[in-house]
Amino acid sequence: MKKQITKNILISTLLTSSVIGCAGGSSIQSTSNTPVKKIHESIIVKGVTIVNTQNGQLQSNMAVMIDAGKISKIIPADMIGEQGGKRIIDATGKYLVPGYNDMHAHILDEASSQEMAAVMLAHGITGYRQMSGSDELLNQRKDNKLTLPEDSPELLGMPGPVLVRSNASTPEAATALVQKQRVEGADFIKVVDVSPSAFFAALAEAKKEGEYFAGHIPAGVDAVQASKQGMLSIEHLGPVDSVLISCSTNEAAARKAIGSEANVNMSAEIGKLTIANPLLVRLMANQNAFLKTRMIIDTYSDSKCKKVADTFANFKTWHVPTLIRNQTMQMADKADFSKSPNLQYVPRATREYWNEVSQQFTKTVKPVARETLRQLTQMDMKLVKLFDQQGVKMLTGSDVGGMWVVPGVSLHQEFDLLAKAGLTPLKVLQMTTLNSAEFLGKRTSMGTVEMGKDANLVLLDANPVQSVANLHKISAVIRDGKFYSQDTLEKLKMEAANKMAAATETTSSNHVH
């Protein structure tokens, strides 16, 4: 990708209202058909306090035995006896929780995927859901040729190419694409921007094929109806106002104003372009683009929104708020983002590109639109709190790969924003551990620290149930039974930063939010 945001690219992308891409290639290399043989340690984490993610209760002075990548036994520390040949980790005064999960990430289709994965692991992330895929990636995995770096979180799920107007322009095309992805082994169907008729046709076919349906609520689609029809997870709280519109007392007028947005057709050429900030694109096309959003905010009804949340809860529609990603779009020129020392974990060329987009944002966004975006950010926080109170199930995700979203760091920023929105430390911990297991149907292998479960764990220096800030205090990580000390984690970060500094490629043009 060119470092400069050229005039032609900006003009070409004025038609799109969201970041779209057609994931084609992969930066993960295909090797052999034989899985890499893993060497597991036998470990005893001794004297540790186990945090029960179901209720926040603590079990102190325990010994957690790990063999062959699994938790083999949990007993009081003073009962372990002689354990010849096992590595003993003194965890006195420390707290053990399941590994964190970033349930909205884009790393497989990035040029620096290996470094991104290492930095994520170094921040306690032991699992992630890849939110953009391709025929190539699916076929590689199907043929057992998709090899992931050793120092990497577990891939928890992946779709095929996301549904956009260029590949799912009609209900028939959308249905055929879902069928094709099912054959290729997609774990779920990801939708970004299609017509309402194509959206519901794809949703119905996904249910028929036994796959879950996740992604955005496109312009013209009612999130409440999507929930009732079986959409399993909604990303980014919409994004923008596509969920919030259902909370407006003037919903009918707001939906009527959508009109032109719902009928924009995305060409394949535009679909291959990357724009780091879709909100900027809308504003460049039309400075009045957020008048509808302004009206929706002004006519927000708490009681109406509670009914919307009740629908999500009753129909078991999950949400992945990605508050950090929403803020990096809505406040793209915020100095905290552009001057963050954590940008060392992003390729140099990508940082330069993001800075150019940020400068364009500053030039383009007028005060009235800026105020609307600021209030939209506040509404995002309000929705998260209300959803939590009404029993809507939520997951932690950061949309790593997006502008100003730094691998690993971004999920911890998400933790802090969720706490700022009013969620308890236990709820945030559950969102990134227990809820991920429930969502994926993997309660037998992840989500809690129990015998027989996968040894994907984080050792903390302080009690995470007391404060969300303690989720950042990582002493060590255990991934698939392999122990990573704090020194090893710091080394992973340093090596990644050095490689990022030398990288000449920006983030992949295939990135899809």
Structure characterization notes:
This protein is of the alpha/beta class. The chain has a single domain, classed as Metal-dependent hydrolases (TIM Barrel). Helix content is 38%, strand content 16%. It has 19 helices and 16 strands. β1 and β2 form a beta hairpin. α7 packs antiparallel against α10. The N terminus and C terminus are likely disordered.
| Overall mean confidence score, pLDDT | 88
Care to count the β-strands?
Answer: 16
**Span between termini:** 18 Å
Computed over alpha carbons, the radius of gyration is 22 Å
Short descriptors:
single chain; 513 residues; alpha/beta; TIM Barrel; 8-stranded mixed β-sheet; 5-stranded parallel β-sheet; 19 helices; disordered N terminus; disordered C terminus
Q: What's the SSE blueprint?
A:
Blueprint: H1 7-12, E1 43-51, E2 58-67, E3 70-76, E4 87-90, E5 95-98, E6 100-105, H2 113-122, E7 125-130, H3 135-142, E8 154-157, E9 163-164, H4 171-184, E10 188-193, H5 196-209, E11 212-215, H6 223-228, E12 233-235, H7 251-258, H8 268-271, H9 278-285, H10 291-298, H11 302-314, E13 318-320, H12 323-330, H13 335-338, H14 348-364, H15 367-389, H16 409-420, H17 425-432, H18 434-440, E14 457-460, E15 474-479, E16 482-485, H19 486-502
Parallel strand pairs: 1-4, 1-5, 6-7, 7-8, 9-10, 10-11, 11-12, 12-13
Antiparallel strand pairs: 1-2, 2-3, 5-14, 14-15, 15-16
Helix pairs in contact: 2-19, 4-5, 7-10, 10-15, 12-15
In short, what is this structure?
With 513 residues, this protein is of the alpha/beta class.
